[in-house]
Amino acid sequence: MSTLEQSRHLATSLPGPKSQALIERKSAAVSNGVGTTMPVYAARAGGGIVEDVDGNRLIDLGSGIAVTTIGNASPRVAAAVGAQAQEFTHTCFMVTPYEGYVAVCEQLNRLTPIEGDSRSALFNSGSEAVENAVKIARTYTRKQAVVAFDHAYHGRTNLTMALTAKSMPYKHGFGPFAPEIYRAPLSYPFRDAEFGKELATDGELAAKRAISVMDKQIGADNLAAVIIEPIQGEGGFIVPAEGFLPALLDWCRKNNVVFIADEVQTGFARTGAMFACEHEGISPDLIVTAKGIADGMPLSAVTGRAAIMDSPHVSGLGGTYGGNPVACAAALATIETIEADGLVARAREIETLMKERLGRIQADDDRIGEVRGRGAMIAVELVKPGTTEPDADLTKALCAGAHAEGVIVLSCGTFGNVLRFLPPLAISDELLHEGLDVLAAVLAKR
């Protein structure tokens, strides 16, 4: 546990004078295209707290967008990073390889729900791993087309922007995008209810709708891969109806289509299982991981069935920094911490606490259309009173109000009307309750 005081404290209004000075420096030095959510600059972080340069301590309900799952200053990770950095920081695995890369791949092959013999390859970011998963699928199937889903988010590179559904801020003005990308309808129970209860609750029926689109618009003979987030992240923490994912996987297996699970945001204990695919008992062909894999160090991976992963030619996969030795040391320490400290179970405890508390708030406020999610990946969808109409303005106001009170919360969703909560698994129940107290108070004033 971090030695940082685990309590919310506002020494100044936000931003404080030191953060304000850094905001001015950013304006003069950093591209305007790089935005920030909070008007503060971090100095220290750990447990469930981020402390800024002015001495304000903020409750962290964002984990750097699901990255610091085990906390921002996990002792095992800090020690492993320091020890590896003293030995060497880089040699390039493709030139003079090292054990850490192999060890991370061994752990991924052990942990991921891939049937049979598996292989892994390491990269730097989620976007890079997604691109490589598509490369691998195309090589294996000798087909070109790829299907992603409504509300999907897969990254900010050219190909992954094409896979991503939301235009602003991710795609607007950055085209043209990679070709042979198609989109199918997702199972979105809260919104599908507008078209009938059966569609909202029957995942197999929702899958038939998606499969019909794929059959008609592309054809299985042209389709290399289907890529999907088992629980959507940026799209709104959407949990598909039960049966949706297994039905899609079954269709893919029957039609020589590679099923890629993008577990960048859901992986590594975040959802109350090591990987979100486990909730539905599915075994994808390829799994993409990043974010929580190395507690903030840049690392990502593709893990999959050996026959698929071994299909690219030698040197067809790689990259100068992929599987950096310091990042690999962090990943091994992260996995050790998750398993040794029982953090999968801790994620389930957080789910129970947050859903119970948010459910009570929802019972008294019909602007909360739905509370959903799994583990420490929980969201509320905000709507206009008495309707299912998205309320992006309320969402913005709640975020701003919580931020001013020293609570880090994030928004998401295609309609900009979802509050998402991604607390580190190292956070205390007391800080969780306090953060939700602040949110409830802000909501009551709107």
Automatic annotation (TrEMBL):
Pathway: Amino-acid degradation; 4-aminobutanoate degradation. It comes from the Bacteria. SUPFAM superfamilies: PLP-dependent transferases. InterPro entries: 4NH2But_aminotransferase_bac, Aminotrans_3, Aminotrans_3_PPA_site, Class-III_PLP-dep_AT, PyrdxlP-dep_Trfase, PyrdxlP-dep_Trfase_major, PyrdxlP-dep_Trfase_small. Its cofactor is pyridoxal 5'-phosphate. It is an enzyme of class 2 (transferase). It catalyses: 4-aminobutanoate + 2-oxoglutarate = succinate semialdehyde + L-glutamate; (S)-3-amino-2-methylpropanoate + 2-oxoglutarate = 2-methyl-3-oxopropanoate + L-glutamate. Its EC number is 2.6.1.19, 2.6.1.22. One of its GO terms (molecular function) is 4-aminobutyrate:2-oxoglutarate transaminase activity. Keywords: Aminotransferase, Pyridoxal phosphate, Transferase. It holds the Pfam family Aminotran_3. Belongs to the class-III pyridoxal-phosphate-dependent aminotransferase family. This is (S)-3-amino-2-methylpropionate transaminase. The lineage of its organism: Bacteria, Bacillati, Actinomycetota, Actinomycetes, Mycobacteriales. The gene is gabT.
